[in-house]
Amino acid sequence: MAGFGWRVGSKVQRWGRSCLRGFSSHAIPSQLENVGFIGLGNMGSHMARNLITAGYKVTVHDINENSMKKFSDDGIPTKQSPLEVSESSDVVITMLPSSSHVLEVYNGTNGLLGAGSRLGPWLYIDSSTVDPQTSRKISAAISRCHLKENKGYAENPMILDAPVSGGVPAAEAGKLTFMVGGLEEAYLAAKPLLLSMGKRAIYCGGAGNGSASFVNSASSLIILDVQMIPTHS
Fold it and tell me: In angstroms, rounded to a whole number, what is the distance separating the alpha carbons of residues 95 and 87?
């Protein structure tokens, strides 16, 4: 089976199936350069700014105009809808409060999939804390779509569910941990982008597995906390 990868000197490091081709190991690959970021809350605002600091060309959107103004005041492009963000992006990252917000941003009026089944961005990354079923529902919707243009390095649009741990301090410091579900080739291609916002990215398997791993980790911590509560007889 043909592989894909990045070129180092005259050698090609093979990753897997031939869905992506030609990523460079130096600087920012052009395939990742234009990033749309949706959700500028306590976590998302820091994540977006870390991408900007790393040299990515970032366009942002949030339903809160004041949140967007903080970016526009710094000369960062803002858009009035998720659909508008997608029109100027190669990659779109969402960082939203809940499953219902994610479904609305993807499927709602002027949502990321609002232009029909032919999409501009080749990669979507949802870092929201949602249930695995929501992640898989969005992944299924993306899998039914096609790219508006032949990108040369991607045959079809892809999506990763990539919830984070570490909280606001880690988001600000760029030390988040990403738990990632989706196609492994998409994970490998997106890893430089993720590591511009975090210290570690862990591949957890297929669609929804990143969200499932996050939920399981959170549940384990809750159980541990309960077990540590002192009992009194």
Answer: 18
CA distance 72 to 157: 29
CATH number, domain with residue 91: 3.40.50.720
pTM of the model: 0.83
What does the alpha-carbon distance between residue 128 and residue 151 come to, in Å, rounded to a whole number? Answer: 27
If one counts the domains in the chain, the total is 1
Q: Is residue 3 part of a domain?
A: no
Q: Which domain holds residue 164?
A: 27-227
How many CB atoms sit inside 10 A of residue 52's CB?
18
Angle between helix axes 209-227 and 132-143 (nearest 10 degrees) is 170
- HSE on the CB side for 20, CA within 13 Å? 25
| Predicted pLDDT of residue 217 | 57
Going from the C-alpha of 109 to that of each of 60, 115, 135, 141, the distances in angstroms are: 18, 9, 19, 15
Task: Provide block-wise average pLDDT over 10 residues at a time, the chain (233 residues).
Answer: 33 35 60 98 98 98 98 98 97 98 97 93 98 97 94 90 97 98 97 98 96 65 36 43
